[in-house]
Amino acid sequence: MCTVEKRGNLFILTITGDDEHRLSPSFIASILKALSKVKSEASPGSVLITTSHGKFFSNGFDLSWAQAAGSVSAAAERLHYMVQIFKPVVAELLSLPMPTIAAIAGHAAAAGFLLALSHDYMIMRSDRGVLYMSEVDLGLTLPDYFSALFKSKIGSSSVRRDLLLTGMKVKGESAVRMGIVESAHEGADGVMKAAVRLGEQLAERNWNGEPYAEIRKSLYPEISRLLGLPEKFFSISKL
Ligand SMILES: CCCCCCCCCCCCC/C=C/C(=O)SCCNC(=O)CCNC(=O)[C@H](O)C(C)(C)COP(=O)(O)OP(=O)(O)OC[C@H]1O[C@@H](n2cnc3c(N)ncnc32)[C@H](O)[C@@H]1OP(=O)(O)O
């Protein structure tokens, strides 16, 4: 599950436990609840940092729960259900009225990678953990909003190809070189220190979160439309 802690202007959302942090219906619900809390307490200068305990940031959807349905068609239905209920998590992150940072202290695979990619900034470990889109290895197709987020967030078509069509497992330093993450640091502490440093720099700008969120949505019109995120036209709040 996850917890939310406030440290000055920083909201620290931590995915707790030493398991794979599989995105099951109950885990997805707990992330949504945490994001709703963060949004309700947002103020100018707020910043979200999402991190995790243990070896995994998140290893993607809970396929064991899907397969426990007892038949292929029932498993497909459960997988499809997770795809649907995860969409609001991505929508919440892309419309959150504050800068967001994923402090990726472990592996982020498939939907778990998408959870990290839904943040404005990603910071990884250099010594452990990979980014991995396993769908091609599993013989699963990509939901439309998965592909749209990759197209929105990762500019290089060859990097998108490597990630989505080869199932490349990308370690921290390579992820920096490929332009996927901002930086990579030794150990979970190193990642968190870097995320807090960046968060505090962003918080100092004391931005009004609503225009910030609108500008972010205007950067990613395709995924915003897919997620049903309306564009709000703003009055000039200050001239
Ligand atoms: C069902 C029918 C059809 C359905 C149709 C309807 C629906 C249609 C739409 C379908 C939806 C598709 C979208 C799906 C999304 C999902 O989320 S599905 C779930 C996907 N999840 C997965 O597939 C899980 C993938 N994860 C893995 O494969 C592994 O967990 C891992 C991430 C690769 C990690 O493997 P693991 O063996 O646990 O790794 P480690 O032991 O940690 O590391 C291995 C060795 O590597 C070393 N290492 C790790 N990181 C680093 C590093 N950065 N630098 C150096 N070394 C590193 C590590 O030390 C290990 O070394 P050793 O210790 O020596 O072994």
TrEMBL record:
What are the protein's UniProt keywords?
A: Lipid metabolism, Membrane, Transmembrane, Transmembrane helix
**InterPro entries in alphabetical order:** ClpP/crotonase-like_dom_sf, Enoyl-CoA_hydra/iso
Could you tell me what reaction this enzyme catalyses?
A: a (3Z)-enoyl-CoA = a 4-saturated (2E)-enoyl-CoA; a (3E)-enoyl-CoA = a 4-saturated (2E)-enoyl-CoA
Q: Which Gene3D superfamilies match?
A: 2-enoyl-CoA Hydratase, Chain A, domain 1 (3.90.226.10)
Matching Pfam families, A to Z?
ECH_1
Q: In which pathway does it act?
A: Lipid metabolism; fatty acid beta-oxidation
Identify one Gene Ontology CC term for this UniProt entry: peroxisome
Indicate the enzyme's highest-level EC class.
isomerase
State the family it belongs to. Answer: Belongs to the enoyl-CoA hydratase/isomerase family.
This protein's name:
Delta(3)-Delta(2)-enoyl-CoA isomerase
Give the species this sequence originates from. Cucurbita maxima
